[in-house]
């Protein structure tokens, strides 16, 4: 999960994988994805016990941000 | 396996230590803080690392390598808070999430672009991007989400 100066730089990068276009996010999209309780609540004192509840809102946010791309679908 | 309350406490101790010091504590520091034997501290760390969270040990050691949003080994994602440069992020996305461990503070992410090595600089605060240079920055995740668990350090 890396940062690039632009989409052109992502696509030119030697590590870019064909077919992974949906893996490219704008900065605002990335910030939104990283702002669910899974990330916000890390200092709440009960993070490990709460962790199972963090998956659903995280993947819901991914669906919202990425237009339900299968690339971001959770493991089954 | 330690009980969940013990794992909660261990997680919290490690993360707060990383926020304060910019490095992960050794298990003996955890043991000392908790008033338990070193071996018990080591077991807490091992149990925490096998609890299914996105953190891990350096291979074949009991040394914490990565603990989100931070990395205990330097990465290309340097974090600057209040002028201090003590932290590295686990990855580009976690660099953004690091703001949640510094509530009310601006967190500057400094990184090179992996394509051209030219600088990227982003400042985030409480989940809001305050500034970003250059315009048009992108995050890229090379693996579909269904493959993250099996490839955590790469993802």
Strand segment count of chain A: 2
Please state the structural category of chain B: alpha+beta
Q: Spell the H/E element sequence of chain A.
A: EHEHHHH
Number of helices of chain A: 5
Our measurement of the CA-to-CA distance between the termini of chain A, rounded to an integer number of angstroms, reads 21 Å
The fraction of residues assigned to DSSP E strands of chain A is 5-15%
Oligomer: heterodimer
CATH 2nd-level architecture of the largest domain in chain B: Orthogonal Bundle
Low-confidence stretches of chain B: none
Number of helices of chain B: 4
Largest sheet strand order of chain B: 5-4-6-7-8
Quick structural summary:
The complex is a heterodimer of chains A (76) and B (155). Chain A contains 5 helices and 2 strands.
Give structural attributes.
heterodimer; A: 76 residues; mainly alpha; B: 155 residues; alpha+beta; Arc Repressor Mutant, subunit A; 2 domains; 5-stranded antiparallel β-sheet; 28% helix
């Amino acid at each position: 999960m890396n940062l690039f100066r632009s989409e052109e730089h992502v696509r030119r990068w030697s590590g870019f994988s064909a077919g992974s276009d949906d893996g490219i996010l704008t900065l605002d999209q990335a910030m939104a994805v990283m702002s669910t309780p899974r990330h916000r609540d890390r200092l709440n004192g009960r993070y490990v016990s709460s962790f199972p509840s963090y998956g659903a809102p995280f993947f819901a946010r991914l669906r919202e941000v990425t237009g339900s791309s299968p690339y971001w679908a959770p493991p089954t | 396996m330690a009980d969940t309350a013990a794992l909660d406490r261990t997680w919290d101790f490690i993360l707060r230590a990383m926020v304060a010091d910019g490095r992960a504590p050794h298990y003996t520091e955890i043991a000392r803080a908790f008033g338990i034997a070193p071996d018990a501290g080591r077991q807490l760390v091992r149990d925490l690392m096998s609890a299914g969270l996105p953190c891990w040990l350096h291979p074949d050691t009991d040394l914490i390598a990565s603990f989100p949003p931070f990395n205990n080994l330097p990465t290309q994602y340097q974090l600057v808070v209040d002028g201090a440069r003590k932290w590295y992020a686990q990855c580009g996305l976690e660099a953004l999430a690091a703001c949640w461990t510094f509530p009310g503070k601006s967190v500057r992410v400094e990184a090179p672009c992996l394509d051209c090595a030219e600088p990227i600089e982003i400042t985030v605060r409480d989940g809001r991007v305050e500034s970003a240079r250059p315009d048009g920055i992108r995050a890229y995740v090379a693996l579909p989400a269904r493959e993250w668990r099996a490839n955590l350090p790469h993802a």
